[in-house]
Design a protein that fits this description.
Helix content: 25-40%
Number of helices: 14
Largest sheet: 6 strands, mixed
Radius of gyration: 24 Å
Strand order of the largest sheet: 2-3-1-4-5-6
Number of strands: 14
Strand content: 15-25%
Order of helices and strands: EHEEHEHEHEHEHEHEHEHHEHEEHEHH
């Protein structure tokens, strides 16, 4: 499933065909955003819709095809449905007519395998209410309480919203400070932002915008300038920033221009700590020095974009690593959340981008198989800092002595 450029919490709706999944979505959204029909199998591929649930906040609901779909096409739909488990933060399992079987058992098993919180909802309860025996069975089998619901009369609507609010992981909707714990009131932060072929015309890239906003939210001062202006600015003004943040591509220039007593890091490393697996990045980055001839490295871009002739992930990082190691290394690049071209164990190192376009859970899920298999992982900015000899300085603001 293609992942949109949203970092709001994702809620997936699962269940058999014609169990009322689309009706549930329309009820939660307060608008008709999913096709509703009396015929089973109306929903085909997963459908995403961004909106605000009253009483909770902005979310993205993912409507999926019936888990009991049949035929060759149905099997493909089920495969797409199961792939959504990698991108969601909360699952809603919709049942009806007091029916529970292998389909539901398999889904709950997959929820648990993915450490995914879920809620079981008995839909169409205006037509047939859940029996006491069925309610007790669900509690025993899943360890969760069954929610009786009807889109027709909105019974238990407020209860369901409250349950969503308390069940969805807090980190899915509460945004921690990007660098707020590194700065204090009135501090000056220097943001070094090169304007090159990869910079979007007329605007800054998202991590730079996020940094500016976080600085302002923490009542500090952001000074934004190109790498070519740093030396003159510091000399002319005499200002000593509390922190300097640079684009990873000009790490060397920033390292030379920013005095050693001023903490220096990169936008990518800020994002690595903000939503990535920072501890595993710290462990994995030095393994760049262990790469050998014939090893394969995977670069994960979590968004899709126009590929420039000197692209950071596809050209620069492979070139820098090859030059640093002096080894003949094979590189694969995967954009978005597409499947990997080969087993994760074929790789000696995985390098993840900052992940500014995806949720924290999606990023962690993307790396979990590699981490479980013992494959080292790192991040674009941390890898660049390492091969340029300034890794220790770049991570120093976040590493306790």
């Amino acid at each position: 499933m293609s992942k949109g450029k949203e970092s709001k919490p994702h809620i997936g709706i699962y269940g058999r065909r014609n169990n009322g999944k689309s009706s549930l979505i329309n009820c939660l959204a307060g608008q008709d955003i999913a096709i509703v029909s009396d015929h089973a199998g109306t929903t085909t591929d997963p459908v995403k819709k961004s909106f605000e649930i009253t009483g909770f906040g902005p979310v993205i609901l993912v409507d999926t095809a019936g888990i009991d779909d049949s035929g060759e096409l149905g099997e493909k739909r089920i495969e797409r449905t199961l792939r959504t488990l990698e991108i969601i933060d909360l699952a809603l399992l919709v049942v009806t007519n007091n029916s529970w079987g292998d389909f539901e058992e398999d889904l709950v098993k997959k929820f648990n395998e993915n450490d995914l919180p879920f809620i079981v909802i008995h839909s169409k309860s205006d037509l047939e209410e859940p029996t006491d025996d069925f309610t007790e069975r669900i509690s025993v089998v899943t360890g969760t309480a069954l929610v009786e619901f009807s889109a027709a009369d909105k019974r238990n609507y407020e209860k369901l919203i409250s349950l969503i609010s308390t069940t969805i992981p807090e980190h899915s909707y509460k945004t921690p400070a990007l660098l707020g714990d590194l700065i204090s009131y009135g501090d000056i932060v220097l943001l070094i932002t090169p304007i090159d072929i990869e910079a979007p015309a007329g605007r800054l890239i998202l991590p730079q915008v996020q940094a500016i906003r976080d600085i302002l939210d923490n009542d500090a001062v952001a000074i934004v300038l190109k790498e070519t202006e740093v030396d003159a600015f510091l000399k002319k003004t005499g200002i000593k920033p509390a922190l300097a943040v640079t684009d990873s591509q000009v790490f060397n220039k920033a390292d030379a221009s920013v005095p050693g007593d001023i903490p220096l890091t990169s936008f990518s490393i800020l994002l690595a700590r903000f939503k990535g697996d920072f501890e595993n990045y710290l462990k994995g980055t030095p393994t760049i020095s262990d790469l050998k001839d014939g090893n394969r490295v995977l670069l994960l871009e979590s968004c899709t974009h126009h590929v420039a002739c000197d692209d950071i992930g596809r050209v620069k990082i492979p070139r820098w690593i090859s030059n640093f190691t002096g080894k003949k290394i094979e590189y694969d690049v995967v954009a978005g959340l597409d499947k990997l071209p080969r087993p994760v164990t074929d790789y000696s190192l995985i390098i993840q981008c900052g992940g500014c376009m995806i949720t924290r859970r999606q990023l962690h899920n993307r790396l979990s198989a590699a981490i479980k298999a013992g494959v080292p992982v790192t991040n674009y900015g941390m890898a660049i800092a390492y091969v340029q000899g300034i890794f220790n300085r770049a991570v120093a603001p976040f590493v306790k002595d």
